[in-house]
From TrEMBL:
This is APC family permease. InterPro entries: AA/rel_permease1 (IPR002293). It holds the Pfam family AA_permease_2. Keywords: Membrane, Transmembrane, Transmembrane helix. The keyword Transmembrane helix applies. It comes from the Bacteria. It is found in: Membrane. It is a multi-pass membrane protein. The chain crosses the membrane at residues 30-54, 84-103, 109-133, 145-168, 188-206, 227-253, 273-301, 322-341, 347-370, 382-405, 417-434.
Length: 587
């Protein structure tokens, strides 16, 4: 009997998805500055506005359809299963990329503290730890997520305090100097466009709460959206402003600062001790994003399995109510991707970016379709048409920006990497959706190939059987003088051992000199029972035994007569062999 599963409260649910979205502070400020320069905080505020619109969009859809699955669930109830599966594939790819990138980046931050630690093996260990934690149950996972979430917010608060103290002591001159610098892209519009496209990655994780809504207490889901929106609206723009106030833009756009911006900020304002705290926080919150991926993908694949898209194999649960087979499968997928990329998980940026933004856009489309096709469904809140269209347009703009964004030197484009993973994934889903049709097609192909061969062998089989029957149906004639049963038994043994035929005529030619023995018929009936495989016919004919008589019998029965002489050594055969056309002599 499965253990009763407790629903998640506001803090637990917010922590699980909040670790993912709040971990974006580690990279999104540096990413926005790389493209938008001094306008990075503006692009991050625009992202906050877009996310505010999505709060209503998600709230309306999940309020009307409070089931796991996110965009998949929205499209499943408004379009077709194939369209919904398209969204599900994108979501799974997004979670896979998030898990691998977050785990790898988490170990890189820990490696900053422990340089001797191997990256790839420890990344696999980290993925395995969170797989086991998720198998242990969502309640246990939530406890770990809460601890990470609180530590993360506390660390950011402490870091912000140190930065503010440092700036009040040293002034805001660097911030004003950065504001006067020329834009590397040349145009403010291009800078904001590309900066906004890059900054939209900072809301990854916002969609996660919708994928495990069934595990949340009633009324918790909209609160998770509110809390996540508040976190990224405050932290991300604030950290971008702090970064611009501490370092010049060329420094911020260097590779070193792009990867470890918050650690550099901590070391600048608080020394090595604060940098270590930030590195530890980065390790923990990125690990929390791995946990978010496991929880989110479990809820999604459970729903897909219940809808018979995935095999029922994945529905098996353990005593704690966890779908452990889904978790193990996702762990193996993530581990294989890590090993295939040989730890260069930056290759997955295209998968992560395009998948996540596509899912956001599809969710907005799902909201529109819900308004049109399922308008009578009760829902706690409604997003206005204007808000939905603006939000979808903003996400599409960000998606286009990430597709056309020039890749870093030595790396493929976002679109090419995305297609490399998306095409085999969607092909697998298409096969699962159409497996019955495909099996029927396969059966038709097999029939088309093998039916002619099968028909040929059936004809050959029938021809062989006819020949066998023809051979077995040829009769053997034995002329007896009234021999005893022992002699007749020799005949039966001879036929069984040497002849193909299974039909025997035992003929006695009676006349004035030859009489039919009284027991002969009974003895023949006895032999018929003893040799059921041989059909015996007893025939009594009038006349004198001679070659002429044998030939007349041959014509009468339309069979060649093989004459068998039964006798003892020294007996003289009464006729010439050549007169009978084939005599078999048994002594």
């Amino acid at each position: 009997m499965n253990k009763v599963q407790h629903k998640l409260n506001q803090l637990s649910a917010t922590a699980i998805c909040g670790n993912d979205i709040s971990s974006s502070v580690l990279y999104v400020s540096a990413l926005a500055i790389a493209f938008a320069g001094q306008y990075a905080w503006v692009t991050l505020l625009i992202v906050s506005v877009v996310l505010f619109l999505f709060r209503k969009i998600y709230g309306e859809v999940v309020g009307a359809l409070p089931l796991n699955g996110g965009a998949y669930n929205a499209l499943l109830n408004t379009t077709s299963k194939s369209t919904a599966s398209f969204a599900a594939t994108l979501t799974i790819l997004s979670y896979m990329a998030t898990a691998v990138i977050s785990a790898n980046e988490a170990i890189h931050y820990l490696h900053h503290l422990i340089p001797a630690m191997p990256i790839i093996p420890m990344t696999l260990v980290l993925l395995g730890i969170f797989a086991l934690l998720t198998i242990g149950g969502i309640s246990e996972s939530a406890k770990v997520a809460i601890g990470i979430f609180i530590f993360h917010l506390g660390s950011l608060t402490i870091l912000s305090g140190f930065i503010l103290y440092f700036l009040f002591q040293n002034g805001f001159g660097t911030l004003f100097d950065n504001w006067q610098m020329p834009l590397s892209g040349g145009s403010i519009y291009t800078a904001i466009f590309l900066g906004f496209a890059a900054s939209m990655l900072g809301v990854s994780g916002f969609e996660s709460s919708a994928n495990f809504v069934e595990e949340q207490e009633k009324g918790v889901f909209p609160k998770t959206l509110r809390n996540m929106w508040a976190i990224v609206s405050i932290i991300n723009p604030l950290m971008a402003v702090f970064a611009l106030a501490l370092f010049t833009i060329p420094v911020l756009q260097s590779d070193e600062y792009q990867n470890t911006l918050l650690i550099e900020m901590g070391e600048q304002v608080g020394g090595e001790g604060l940098a270590i705290m930030v590195a530890l926080d980065a390790f923990l919150v990125l690990s929390g994003a791995v946990l978010t991926s496991f929880v989110g993908v479990t809820g999604l694949i459970e729903r897909m399995t219940l809808d018979r898209i995935m095999p029922p194999f994945f529905l098996k649960k353990n005593k704690r109510g966890s779908s452990f087979r889904i978790i193990i499968m996702f762990f193996l997928l993530s581990a294989s991707v890590l090993l295939i990329t040989e730890g260069n998980v930056k290759l997955l940026a295209g998968v992560y970016t395009i998948s996540f933004l596509s899912v956001m856009a599809l969710f907005g489309i799902g909201n529109i379709l819900l308004k049109i096709r399922r308008n009578k469904l009760p829902r706690p809140e409604r997003a206005s048409w204007f808000a939905v269209l603006i939000a979808i347009s903003a996400v599409i703009i960000a998606l286009i920006g990430n597709i056309i964004m020039p890749p870093k030197e030595g790396l493929p484009s976002n679109l090419s990497v995305f297609l490399y993973y998306f095409i085999p994934s969607i092909l697998f889903i298409i096969i699962m959706l159409n497996r019955t049709v495909l099996l029927k097609v396969l059966l038709k192909i097999i029939d088309a190939i093998f039916n002619p061969v099968q028909r040929y062998f059936k004809r050959l089989d029938r021809r062989i059987l006819r020949n066998i029957n023809k051979i077995n149906s040829q009769e053997f004639v034995f002329f007896t003088k009234g021999d005893d049963i022992a002699t007749l038994n020799k005949v039966m043994l001879y036929i069984k051992k040497n002849e193909h035929t299974r039909k025997l005529k035992i003929v006695i030619v009676k006349n004035d000199l030859v009489k039919v023995p009284e027991k002969l018929k009974e003895e023949i009936e006895f032999l018929d029972k003893e040799y059921p495989e041989i059909k015996i016919e007893f025939v009594v004919e009038e006349g004198n035994f001679s070659p002429e008589l044998i030939n007349s019998f041959s014509e009468k029965w339309n069979i060649p007569i093989n004459f068998m002489f039964i006798g003892s050594p020294g007996d003289k055969f009464p006729y010439k062999i050549e007169e009978l056309g084939g005599v078999r002599l048994i002594i």
